[in-house]
Amino acid sequence: MSLAKTFFKDTFIYGLAIVLPRLINFLLVRLHTDVLPNEGYSENTEFYVVAAFFNVILTYGMETSFFRFFSKNKDKNTVMSTAMISIIASTLLFGVALFLFRDPISEALNINADFYSLLVGITLIDTLVVIPFAYLRVTGKPVKFAIIKLINVLIIVILNILFLSTVYGSEALQSVFSVANKVEYIFVANLIASAIVLILVLPYFFKSKLSFQLHIFKNLLSYGWPIMVAGLAFVINENLDKWLLPQIEGEFINGAYSACYKLAVFMTLFIQAFRMGAEPFFFNHSDKTNAKQTYATILKYFTIVGAFGLMFVIVYIDLLRPIFIKKETYLLALDIVPIVLLANLCLGIYHNLSVWYKLTDRTKYGMYISLVGALITVGFNLVFIPKIGFMASAYATLLAYGLMMLLSFGIGKKFYPVPYNVKRISLYLIVSTILSFITYYQFDRNILLGTVFLLFFIALTVVLERKELQLFLKR
């Protein structure tokens, strides 16, 4: 089987492991927006924004470092054990600090004190399971990985329905977990699901003999800390808008913005599926003779699929939207969807291009590029939200991810040149963007015209890629 075929097979399997559970979880958007007012949905969003920051800090790039050194180190058990011990120790220390300074931290982060303990509990548990999940990925155990992920999300969904649904809600369960604010039920459900997942992965904590090697830890940390900084910058790019909007425009606007932002989930899920398969694949196959050509092929087809997804969601948004959001109060921010979808496609291309600094151990460049994106996000939001409202946040996301994509491509050519088909990739990206935006903004989401544009894009792709696809399928 060719490298490209192996990659697409792995990505498909891990994609199901990530996409299916998250798609099921995404269906909760309808329940949440039906039950919660805009302000309540805004509180839910802000909770997970802070959780995202905590998760990046607590893992400090250890997941990617683990992939890097586990794949190239002969003593894999020692790498596993060292990574596990460091994560457990740092998580416990961080947890103690978070609880000791509960009041000042919750006040500084503008988090409801009643939610804070749940936030810390979820974050600590989710951090502890990072290395076991990374081990399942790097050792090629997608089925176990998928099953545990699916169990997690099914528990969350079931508990959300029992807590929040007016039809299927359980009064007995609600009486056991009595809360003052309905949104708190979402966090309780998450905490219970995370605790069950921790129990399920406990055997992997004892997978290798306990051994902590200081030199391995230093290598893991040296490789990982720039990834942590890049991760923090990414969280800023992805979430700062949802933290600033309630303070500048109010909770009501942020609730609408956050709900409509979720409609870009199809692109987000595609990117996440790609990353789950791509990261271990890039490391494990970097020594192959045709690795660079494989990476180039992967990016081209990633762009094709992503561009198709962009057009599909935009063309049929009026059919997809009612499935997830029905309340009219949430729809005032619908116009952000095309911009956010395109921004996430640029982010996906950036993740694909990032192979160069990960394989050459120049993770600091990833940090620098992400920091540039974060600065744009912060500056653009602060300057333009007061002037043009929530649309400024969507434009900031697109500008940040677009520039990060271009910077990574430009710098990567110097250190790890990959023969990307730039003309073809640019063509697909530009054509899909123009046709999508014309459909949405110029012709007011005309489905018939949009379908014609979508078929044209498919025909264009088939004509240009026919020969290569035929060769690919015959291998």
Give an overview in words.
- The protein is 82% helix and 0% strand.
- It has one domain (3-474).
- Helix 3 (38-59) packs across helix 7 (113-128) and helix 15 runs parallel beside helix 21.
- 47% of the residues are buried.
- It is built from 22 helices and no strands.
- The protein has helices spanning 3-26, 28-35, 38-59, 62-72, 76-100, 102-108, 113-128, 130-138, 142-164, 171-176, 183-201, 214-248, 251-261, 265-284, 291-315, 317-324, 337-353, 355-359, 363-388, 391-415, 422-442, 447-474.
- With 475 residues, the chain is an all-alpha fold.
Radius of gyration: 22 Å
Count of all domains: 1
Total number of helical segments? 22
Envelope shape: globular
First-last Cα distance? 7 Å
**Count the strands?**
0
Q: What is the percentage of strand-forming residues? A: under 5%
Task: Give the ordered list of helices and strands.
Answer: HHHHHHHHHHHHHHHHHHHHHH
Average pLDDT level? 87
Q: How would a crystallographer describe the biggest sheet?
A: none
Structural category is: mainly alpha
Poorly predicted parts: none
Helix content: over 70%
